[in-house]
Write a structure and sequence with these properties.
The chain is α/β, with parallel strands linked by helices and 712 residues long. 29% of the residues lie in helices and 21% in strands.
């Protein structure tokens, strides 16, 4: 395997290795050694080339302090290699052993209520702890030096799903480290007080030793700047914890690739050293878990959304854990993929940016907190339909890997994403409004349903590959992003900037000018004179969770929900439909036209969607939040006239189409049936299905959860 230096972060960045990694996370420590050789044989027969091991085995690698035991994994690695299976090792720092936390309880996390984490599960220790970092470096160095010259170890995963169980800590150690971080960031306490608004609600500090962690509701709300900096600190601490390990691994063997597998994506700044320290990122993909947790609109769409979000951080990625079957922990369980669906979900991951994929897991555990989290094999060690689908997927990859590696996912419509500060800025003062991602999801889902190539992209990226860009309510904005957007629009791009964008400084202060700030308003030629509340379905007059009552009056009688909530309509062309969440009253420059207006109440006739020609393109401003009706009208009225359309026309409902493109312009279309029913799709004649080599006519039948891949 060859590794090259990784390219700069970008939504279009390919991986810097020349091999598609395919296999499973494997836990040889969970079974008797008599299983091992048969395991490796069946992996090879399935077409696997790699496994991932060791992420939860610190207690095995180091049974007591200073005594390292590599024997179990040495033998497992050698046995896999005899069948052509290479190993990716993991630093085991997500599960520090009991002897370590007993000796150093100061490493343990503390929650906002003052409860110290008990030992066990995982991520029970605080990554900001200097003691944990010291021991993390020690175990990483011992493992790296032991495997430095082992040709069967090809790369490393740092830790495991950092910050997934929890990212926060209120331990004394964390507070000390937070004070140090604040001192380094601000230099003087006066600058910190200025950033956090110390003259409001008696929050002024006299010195850095007084700085506290932002305990929620203790007794009231904390400064948005204080909360923002706490989460910046957590992201910094996470990156520093990982960097300790990366520096050791790179110094020991520069030929190893190094990545991390992300789970819940909390308190990680992907556009910083966390990602630039690595060769590439990995994202663990559990489509049915996402949909059950967040109700995005179906397992297929939930997966597509998650993959597109992840790709926006750093470009192509690997999937170190891809769902293979029923998933369960004691208090949850997911739906089970139906026959063919496991393979389809894996192909969706590849279609949307995966350049490596491992099915979780080789076999289910017989003990512990995931005994019903199924693997490729069943509990009785027998390969059944999941093994067959994994084997078929490996065959699929063998058929297309020459076209696949080095390609990136096509995006015609980009949605601004991947910015840590804007994610956290919203959380510091949400007011019940949708987050930027929640708003963006409405447009993304409408584009997905029409098979229009879309995804998430950071405004600092090269935008020249896009035809349109939507900015979903980014509170914080930078002048250099404005410059990049101006070049994009003047070059022929279509821009839509949305309400509340460019309204706060990096310290979470409101700008002392009419929004949008940082030059952004100069592109669409608008300023926001006033803004206010618009009722959304299921909400009352306050931004609180939907409810029928606002509490209880004398004698326990329920108080009625607010009856003064106001709804507004939008007139767009010949149609009128409901707005939601927020209105803005706009001031327009002379060269700006109104494409849609408010339809009623005191705003009747005022612009809500504007357009301004700029160079070869157009800059738009949307003075409200996205709804499903509005999203589809934007597609019809703005995107389609600009030449933005479906990747394949006439596709039946449930057919998902995605394109991957090589730098030389070669294109590959993934046409995936996300339903259980056979579907016939129209095609241009003369196409060949790259998965099977079959020639296709003017239509093709795709079985339930089936797929074809076309060279476009």
């Amino acid at each position: 395997m060859k590794k090259t230096p990784p390219a700069p972060l970008s939504a279009w960045r390919p991986l810097n290795i020349d091999k598609f990694l395919i296999g499973v996370p494997h836990y040889p420590e969970h079974v008797d050694e008599t299983y091992w050789d048969h395991d490796a044989q069946r992996m090879a027969e399935a077409g696997f080339n790699s496994v991932r091991m060791g992420e939860f085995a610190w207690h095995i690698w180091e049974p007591y302090q200073g005594h390292f035991d590599f024997d179990l994994f040495d033998r497992a690695i050698e046995g896999l290699a005899r069948h052509g299976i290479k190993t990716i090792l993991c630093t085991p720092t997500a599960t520090p052993p009991r002897w370590l936390t007993q000796a150093h309880p100061e490493m343990l996390r503390v929650d906002a209520n003052g409860r110290t984490a008990s030992h066990g599960s995982r991520q029970h220790c605080d990554t900001s702890s200097p003691v944990l970092r010291d021991h993390s470096r020690r175990i990483t160095r011992a493992m790296a030096e032991h495997y430095a010259n082992n040709p069967n170890v090809i790369g490393w995963q740092t830790d495991n799903e950092l910050n997934t169980t929890t990212s926060i800590s209120f331990s004394p150690s964390c507070e000390i480290e937070f004070r140090k971080w604040c001192h380094l960031r601000y230099g003087t306490i006066d600058k910190l007080n200025g950033a956090w608004g110390g003259d409001f609600w008696a929050t002024h500090y006299d010195n850095f030793d007084q700085v506290l962690l932002p305990y929620p509701n203790n007794p009231g709300h904390i400064s948005p700047g204080h909360r923002q900096d706490y989460h910046r600190f957590l992201a910094h601490a996470t990156a520093a914890f990982q960097r300790d390990q990366v520096e050791i691994l790179r110094a020991t063997n520069p030929d190893w690739f190094v990545f991390h597998n992300l789970g819940q994506l909390e308190d990680i700044d992907f556009r910083s050293e966390f990602s630039t320290d690595l060769d590439f990122l990995g994202f663990d993909i559990y489509p049915m878990l996402y949909d059950e947790m967040r109700r995005h609109g179906g397992h297929a769409y939930s997966q597509a959304l998650h993959l597109d979000i992840c790709r926006g951080f750093t470009g192509n990625f690997i999937v170190p854990e891809q769902a293979s079957g029923f998933g369960s922990q004691p208090l949850l369980s997911t739906m089970t993929p139906e026959p063919g669906e496991m393979r389809r979900m894996a192909l969706t991951s590849v279609a949307r940016g995966a350049d490596g994929l491992m099915f979780f897991r080789w076999r289910p555990a017989h003990f512990g907190a995931e005994i019903y989290w199924m693997g490729v094999l069943d509990h009785d060690d027998q390969p059944r339909r999941r093994y067959a689908e994994a084997k078929q997927f490996a065959s699929d990859i063998a058929s297309i890997k020459s076209d696949l590696l080095g390609s990136s996912v096509r995006m015609d419509v980009g949605i601004a994403g991947s910015d840590f500060d804007n994610q956290e800025a919203y959380r510091t003062y949400p007011m019940g409004l949708p987050s930027p991602l929640e708003d963006a999801t409405v447009l993304h889902r409408a584009l997905y349903k029409r098979n229009i190539a879309t995804g998430f992209v950071h405004p600092e990226d090269d935008l020249s590959r896009l035809k349109a860009l939507y900015v979903p309510h980014w509170l914080m904005w930078e002048q250099e992003w404005t410059d990049n957007l101006r070049a994009f629009v003047e070059g022929g791009g279509l821009l839509i900037a949305s309400a509340m964008t460019g309204t706060r400084t990096r310290d979470n202060h409101i700008l002392r000018e009419l929004a949008p700030g940082m030059g952004l308003g100069d592109l669409p030629g608008v300023r926001v004179e006033e803004f206010g509340r618009v009722i959304a379905p299921g909400q009352d007059g306050l931004f609180l969770p939907p409810q029928k009552t606002m509490g209880f009056g004398p004698g326990g009688a329920p108080l009625p929900a607010c009856s003064t909530a106001r709804s507004y309509g939008i007139r767009f062309g010949n149609e009128t439909f409901a707005a939601a969440h927020l209105y803005e009253k706009l001031i327009l420059q002379d060269d700006v036209e109104a494409l849609a207006t408010w339809a009623d109440r005191w705003l009747e006739g005022e612009a809500v969607l504007t357009r301004r020609a700029l160079g070869k393109g157009c800059s738009h401003y949307l003075g409200t939040y996205m709804t499903e009706d509005l999203a589809h009208r934007l597609i019809d009225q703005l995107f389609v006239p600009a030449g933005i359309s479906s990747l394949l026309h006439g596709m039946p409902e449930g057919i998902e189409v995605t394109e991957r493109t090589q730098e030389d312009g070669k294109r590959m279309l993934f046409v995936l049936n996300t339903t259980e029913r056979p579907v016939t799709v129209p095609l241009e004649g003369g196409k060949i299905d790259l998965l099977t080599g079959a020639s296709l006519g003017t239509e093709a039948r795709i079985e339930g959860y089936g797929a074809i891949v076309l060279r476009a």
